[in-house]
Specification:
The protein is α/β, with parallel strands linked by helices. It has 2 domains: about 260 residues, Alkaline Phosphatase, subunit A; about 110 residues, Alpha-Beta Plaits (2-Layer Sandwich), CATH 3.30.70.1250. The chain contains 12 helices and 14 strands. A hairpin with a 6-residue loop joins strand 6 and strand 7. Helix 9 runs parallel beside helix 11. The radius of gyration is 20 Å and the shape is globular. The chain starts with a strand and ends in a 17-residue tail after the last helix. About 55% of the residues are buried.
Length: about 375
């Protein structure tokens, strides 16, 4: 193959993993919840075999899928964006990143105050939309940083763009990233700019993630070392701290990400186009918005119908996810779920890929499809599709 398009539908989980109860996620099923919405319509993914995946028959099966189909379990001890993407790129995280259900300790907040010269307010787990409503006025009055976390391994800093412009906020997040290492090595430090007036504060599209560097060699490293293109679309560059990436294109949401990906399909390159579409998670999953989630998947499916004809003889498309975020769940957090796998290409045999033991099988498959050596985690399913 000359090109592989790997599209991550951020948080589109395919049902609870056997250990979901250990994470408080028994019964979670993102696709099941979303499929119950009257706004859910994904005929193109059904044609590829989405409903033929084990446990997803409720979506609607097809007797002759056009693509290869299956699902994968997560071996890493986590359920967040960083852990999920790293695993699908070939790095399994055996130890969970630290979380802070009671807020960050004094040693962290004191270091943040010294590094930024600003006060700290909130410092507890909080919904991203609720936190700016509840602390936005205090921030504008005092100039303090809104620092908060979630059930995931994250330190988030929210700031009003008129008080603290995004570039300044990014500088504070880089300082926080340097602080959050070692025992406090959270998966991500996230900049959360917002704007507006109380009570109608709204988050902007200027979010940035500052991740740890992957703890092992990824398929991105292997591809770039083999002089293949590795084009990162959306927040992929942030998730991998820029490592192994030859070109990065940041986007403002799903619509922008899909438009960029379509343009890249019309461009000549040799290697991997790695895309994250974040709106499912950020705008709908965390807000328990089932209908919004359904509309977003329906929009992607419509776009997919126009994208598939752009793929050439030496192209392959892989659609998957990084974790779940069940909008019908009682919480607003990520959920521990299987992820779907759909593969399409003119040279891809439409077969059942079964239940893969790890997301890392995707890394091994990408490497084999693109003809490079891979000694990392995962078992390729490329031969079964040949």
């Amino acid at each position: 193959m000359k090109r592989v398009f790997l599209i991550v539908l951020d948080s589109v989980g395919a049902g609870e993993l056997p250990d979901a109860a250990d994470f408080g996620d028994a019964g979670a099923n993102t696709l099941l919840s979303v499929s119950r919405s009257k706004f859910f319509s994904v005929p193109n993914m059904i044609k590829l075999g989405l409903g033929n995946i084990d446990g997803l028959g409720f979506i609607g099966q097809t007797p002759r899928p056009l693509g290869a189909y299956g699902k994968a379990a997560e071996r890493s001890r986590g359920k967040d964006t960083t852990v999920g993407h790293w695993e699908m790129a070939g790095v399994i995280s055996e130890r969970p990143f630290p979380t802070y259900p009671d807020g960050f300790p004094d040693e962290v907040t004191d270091a943040l105050r010294r590094a930024t010269g600003r006060g700290i307010i909130c410092n507890k787990p909080y919904s991203g939309t609720d936190v700016i409503r509840d602390y936005g006025r205090e921030q504008l009055r005092t100039g303090a940083l809104i620092v908060y976390t979630s059930a995931d391994s994250v330190l988030q800093i929210a700031a009003h763009e008129e008080l603290i412009p995004p570039q300044e906020l990014y500088g504070y997040c880089r300082a926080a990233r340097e602080i959050m290492t070692g025992e406090h090595g959270v998966g991500r430090v996230i900049a959360r700019p917002y704007t507006g007036e109380y009570p109608n504060f709204t988050r902007t599209k200027n979010r940035r993630d500052f991740s740890l560097e992957p703890t092992g060699k990824t398929v991105l490293d292997a591809l770039s070392a083999a002089e293949r293109d590795v084009i990162a679309v959306g927040k992929i560059e942030d998730i991998f701290a820029g490592r192994g990436i030859t070109e990065a294109i940041h986007t403002s949401g799903n619509a922008d990400g899909m438009a960029v990906t379509k343009k890249l399909a019309e461009r000549d390159f040799c290697g991997l186009c790695f895309v994250n579409l974040v709106d499912y998670d950020m705008l709908y999953g965390h807000r328990n918005d089932v209908d919004g989630y359904a509309r977003a998947l329906t929009e992607f499916d419509g776009w997919l119908g126009g994208f598939l004809p752009l793929l050439g003889e030496e192209d392959a498309l892989i659609i998957t996810a990084d974790h779940g975020c069940d909008p019908g769940d009682v919480s607003t957090d990520h959920t521990r779920e299987y992820v779907p796998i759909l593969v399409f290409g003119k040279k891809i045999k439409p077969v059942c890929l079964g239940v893969r033991k790890t997301f890392a099988d995707t890394a091994a498959t990408v490497a084999e499809l693109l003809g490079i050596e891979w000694n990392g985690a995962g078992e390729s399913f490329s031969e079964s599709m040949a």
